[in-house]
Please model this.
Amino acid sequence: MKIEATVKQIRALLQLAELNEGVDKLSLEAYHRGREAVQRGLPRLLLERYQSLVAAGRTPAVAAIERGACSGCHVRLPTMLEHQAGRSLAVYTCPHCRRMVYARELIREGSHLEEAKSSARAAPASVGRRS
Model:
């Protein structure tokens, strides 16, 4: 299963996973505030998938692909899945543990691409302005 996602959305999933792991270190109010803030930035499909994994006891629910394997269960992923994940910004399903997996290197590269896009959008607005 493949769910298209942006770098920002994948990072939001990772933040949600961190909140769930550190729930005992936060006050209940801080946990709920943080969780609600992160969830607002996620599409319904990604959020529902994440919540179903957590409810089933799959923690962490989101895992990076490391050396061709799911970092959640450490089982080697099928070559086709590994190649697809490395080429498109999305979350996939590990066929063994069912966790959401993503290509970490695309998240790093994607942040640079998103920064370049946002600065390119801002640049034309400032052209012609003088201080």
The chain has one domain: 2-125. The first helix runs from residue 7 to 21. Strands lie at 2-4, 62-66, 69-70, 90-93, 100-102. Residues 2-125 form a domain with the Helix Hairpins fold (CATH 1.10.287.1490).
